[in-house]
Design brief:
Blueprint: H1 26-57, H2 59-63, H3 68-75, H4 80-95, H5 97-104, H6 110-122, H7 127-137, H8 142-156, H9 158-171, E1 173-178, E2 184-189, H10 192-204, H11 217-234, H12 254-257, E3 264-266, E4 272-274, H13 275-283, E5 286-287, E6 290-292, E7 298-301, E8 305-306, H14 310-320, E9 335-339, E10 354-358, H15 359-366, H16 372-377
Antiparallel strand pairs: 1-2, 3-4, 5-8, 6-7, 9-10
Helix pairs in contact: 1-4, 3-4, 4-6, 5-6, 6-8
This protein binds zinc ion (2 copies).
């Protein structure tokens, strides 16, 4: 290579096309996606083989780049993370030939091949002897491959696993910020055991979506995490802080709650809630009355009481059995009891004025994005003619 007089490019890659994907049949689209994936597979293999040759010949040097990664980043405007991955794969493909051959001949998918390469790099001295057997066992998809490689690694490299656990411990983090609009965002990394506990909890809190559920999987996962947080605050098991179970404290004028004042209200932690958000919380919360004197001195603090007493909640649960939003089957443990007419507006805390709503649908009702009267029409009970305002 390198004389420049002969061209090695054999043929252009032709991407097969479907005339109009939107009007094609299910079978046509399915077949076409399979075909495109096969093209991508061939492209991945071809790319990796060429890059491996480029890397070992030191092309980047000739072309004036300090490394192959830099070459990819600047010449092809590629993100650093992708460039690193490609170079790692190219090196592994050169080193672990049987795995590369299995990939090339489509015995393993590109994602499975990548997992095998990563496993090989971690224990390069143990991988070759296991390569043939591992390749025979792989091919059931990405999750099965991860599990298989995890077992194998525990078998051949327990010290490495221990080091990895140590490493996970040092790299654990949970960074959260509350943005100016109150939304909480974050970024986290959990060690494997805590990660597994989190995933199992989230999984348990994510029932299959109803047919008319428009939430994305990610949104439903976020709702599950919210439920997890609420269940901790409400659970009798939660440890006490200063003699009290942890909770959200919102201070609000009764006037505002009754729709006279409006205005904004702040939690002890500094999150700001508008009056409708407070009314939503107040549907199913504990309330205590604090009376202030003219000089803002506290005159009297009433006992904290549940808005919905336990026996009444049980009655609502027995009647509704799950969230009453159409199609939603969220179980009572993950639901609020909603006042159809807010107690602050004189609505009774009586069964005819109460319905069970999961937190997501409860929020929608208070945002007036879900018409409860309409929602209740289709359900198995009538709420004595009470309609939301
Ligand atoms: Zn409510
Ligand atoms: Zn619901």
């Amino acid at each position: 290579m390198g004389s420049g007089e002969t061209s090695q490019v054999i043929a252009p890659i032709v991407v097969p096309r479907l005339a109009d994907p939107a009007s094609a049949s299910v079978d046509e689209r399915d077949e076409h996606l399979m075909l495109l994936e096969a093209v991508r597979h061939a492209l991945d293999v071809e790319w990796t083989e060429t890059l491996a040759a480029s890397e070992s010949a030191g092309d980047h040097d000739v072309l004036g780049y300090p490394s192959t990664v830099e070459y990819l980043k600047h010449r092809l405007r590629m993100a650093g993370s992708r460039a690193h991955r490609y170079v790692k794969n190219a090196r592994a493909a050169g080193q672990f030939r049987a795995t590369f051959a299995a990939w090339k001949h489509r015995q393993v998918s590109s994602d499975e091949a990548e997992l095998l390469f990563r496993a090989a790099e971690r224990t390069p001295d143990r991988y070759p002897e296991a390569e043939t057997i591992l390749l025979e066992l792989v091919g059931d998809g990405v999750e099965a491959t991860k599990r298989l490689l995890d077992y194998w690694r525990h078998d051949v490299d327990l010290p490495g696993v221990r080091l990895d656990v140590e490493d996970q411990l040092t790299r654990r983090r949970f960074d959260v910020t509350r943005k100016a609009n109150g939304m909480v965002t974050g970024d986290f990394a959990l060690p494997r055991t805590e990660g597994a506990a989190l995933l199992a909890s989230i999984d348990a809190l994510m029932p299959p979506p109803a047919d008319n559920d428009e939430r994305t999987t990610s949104q439903r996962r976020a709702d599950a995490l919210g439920d997890l947080a609420w269940s901790f605050l409400e659970g009798s098991e939660s440890p006490t802080v200063g003699g009290e179970r942890p909770h959200i404290n919102v201070h609000v004028d009764l006037d505002a709650l009754e729709g006279v004042g409006g205005g904004l209200h702040e939690t002890d932690e500094g999150a700001v809630f508008d009056v409708e958000a407070v009314r939503q919380l107040a549907c199913d919360a504990s309330v205590s009355r604090v009376i202030f004197g003219p000089g803002s001195e506290v005159l009297d603090v009433g006992r904290k009481t549940r808005v919905i007493p336990a026996p009444l909640r049980r009655a609502v649960v027995a009647r509704d059995r799950h969230c009453v939003a159409p199609g939603c089957r969220r179980k009572p443990g993950w639901c609020d009891v909603h006042h159809i007419v807010s107690w602050a507006d004189g609505g009774d805390t009586a069964i005819g004025n109460l319905v069970l709503l999961c937190r997501y649908h409860h929020t929608l009702v208070h945002l007036e994005k879900l018409d409860l009267a309409y929602a209740l029409e289709g359900s198995q009970f009538q709420t004595a003619g009470v309609r939301p305002t």
